[in-house]
C-alpha cells in the first residue's frame, strides 16, 4: 500500500514531467500556431499576389521547422538509446567477469570443487557461517586475488556510476559487495579473525546472488559466460 509520502512524490514527479514536456513543446506549438495564423491571413486578407506568396512561404517555414526539429529529436533519442544500451551491455559484461572471478576465488577459499553453475553458486550462498568457518582456507594468494578483483570492481563502480547505467539498487549491491570483499581482505591482514572473515564471505556471496538476479540481461549474460567457459574447457580437454 502506498503511503501519503509515496503518493505526494509520484504526483510531484508527474507534474514535473508535464512541466518539462510543456516547456519542450512550447516553441513548436508557437511556431505551428504562427504558421496557421499567417496562412489564414494570406488566404483571406491579402490581395497582392507577391505579398501573399511571401506570407505563404513564411507560414510554410513556420509549419516545417517544428517537423524538422521533432524528426531530429526522435532520431537523436533513438541513437542515444542504442548507444546507452550498448554501453550498458558492455559494462554488465565487465562486472560479470569480475563477479565470476570472485566466485572462483571464494569457492577455492571454502574448498568447493566442480563445475561453476548458478545452482552451485546458490549452494555456496546456502552455506552457513559455521560451515564456511570449518572449510575456510586463507591462503595468501587467495586473499591477494580477492583484493585485485575488489579494486577492479571499485574502478567499475566509480568509473561508470554516474553514466546512468546502473540503477540505484544495483549501485548499492555492487558497493556492498565491494565493501564485504574489502572486509575479508582487511580482516586477514589484521590478523585473520576467521569468524569475521566467514561472515563477510557469506555476505559477499549473497550480494553476488542479488546482483545476478537484479536484471534479466545480467543473468542471461552471466549464464552465457558460464556456457562459454564450459565450451572452452571441453575443447581444451580434447586437445
Q: What is the compact description of this entry?
A:
This protein is mainly α and 239 residues long. The protein has helices spanning 4-44, 49-109, 118-126, 129-135, 140-160, 168-189, 194-212, 216-238. Helix 2 (49-109) packs across helix 8 and helix 5 runs antiparallel to helix 6 (168-189).
Topology:
Elements: H1 4-44, H2 49-109, H3 118-126, H4 129-135, H5 140-160, H6 168-189, H7 194-212, H8 216-238
Helix pairs in contact: 1-2, 2-5, 2-7, 2-8, 3-7, 4-7, 5-6, 6-7
Which short descriptors sum up this protein?
disordered N terminus; mainly alpha; 2 domains; 239 residues; 8 helices
What does this entry look like structurally?
Helix 6 runs antiparallel to helix 7 (194-212). This protein has eight helices and no strands. With 239 residues, the protein is mainly alpha-helical. The protein folds into two domains: 8-81; 87-232, no CATH class.
